[in-house]
Amino acid sequence: xxxxxxxxxxxxxxxxxxxxxxxxxxxxxxxxxxxxxxxxxxxxxxxxxxxxxxxxxxxxxxxxxxxxxxxxxxxxxxxxxxxxxxxxxxxxxxxxxxxxxxxxxxxxxxxxxxxxxxxxxxxxxxxxxxxxxxxxxxxxxxxxxxxxxxxxxxxxxxxxxxxxxxxxxxxxxxxxxxxxxxxxxxxxxxxxxxxxxxxxxxxxxxxxxxxxxxxxxxxxxxxxxxxxxxxxxxxxxxxxxxxxxxxxxxxxxxxxxxxxxxxxxxxxxxxxxxxxxxxxxxxxxxxxxxxxxxxxxxxxxxxxxxxxxxxxxxxxxxxxxxxxxxxxxxxxxxxxxxxxxxxxxxxxxxxxxxxxxxxxxxxxxxxxxxxxxxxxxxxxxxxxxxxxxxxxxxxxxxxxxxxxxxxxxxx
Length: 411
Fold this sequence. Notes:
Elements: H1 13-20, H2 25-42, H3 45-52, H4 56-99, H5 111-139, H6 145-174, H7 177-195, H8 215-251, H9 255-283, H10 289-309, H11 314-340, H12 347-367, H13 377-410
Keywords: Membrane, Transmembrane, Transmembrane helix
Main location: membrane
GO molecular function, one term: transmembrane transporter activity
């Protein structure tokens, strides 16, 4: 099997301008930005709010876990919703569900409020992430799919770099009321953007004359990319949920440094995706996976080591930079792989698979690894690093074997 043509995957200023001029592309970009912005704004805030309100680490992890669990469940069905109701309605409903209920967090930090609101918001996030990513790929010409993927990455990076620290900063200075109401206000912007999306539906299955990929064949095509995404997302779930309370232990009050660290993660996600895309131009997708996984593992392990040593808080920023670069590289590699492994009529399925791996990994990191909080916060970070090493090594060896077999077949 020859490597797919990825010569269009690197960003090019003139091409990006033409891509953005495609009808519906800017509203789609805004919706992806708002989806991840609404998610990022409260992602570290709610667990920290729970811990500081006396709710404990288990409820803090469960808040992220329930959000992500409902997100994944919704993502499974979103391709069907898109085919039945179209992109505009699905995106509009998603914007309302994600941001609208956020103000209800003001009712208290008890389990029914925290978990109930998180579940409803998770459903909205699931709709927005799958439909938004698929819409960008649907609107883009086939020759610009790589650039469209980079556009999604840019929206995610901006959201993470801007909204993660904003949420923590406003919480530290004004309490939960400001980030919660800000998240609610995003619903209005999201509805406005959704109304500007063209009235289109996903391409019918089989419309591109390619057989629908189903069952074990579908799982086989998406599994490697999903596994590496899950592993680095688990590390991100631990960092985003437990870095603020970890720094509270280290420095007394760590929300400010944690916010800056998460902003650096978001900024380096863009850098990592750009580097991976440039590498893919020359060598095809998948070649940058060892670098990305190594950086992610080193970054999250570094956080654990620094926490164990009660190191100066500024050193955590270095670890965040390293992790963010690896996280971004793997995002780009896995998303490109998912889109390229399925026909265009299954873009929604590819988008769902990638988003499910991202969000389920984030939730698993918060809940499953959060159970090890009794052994100390550093333990969670070390386990996350180990998972990255094991999964990254296994997938890299598998893909190299597949590539070697393909070369022998082509030869």
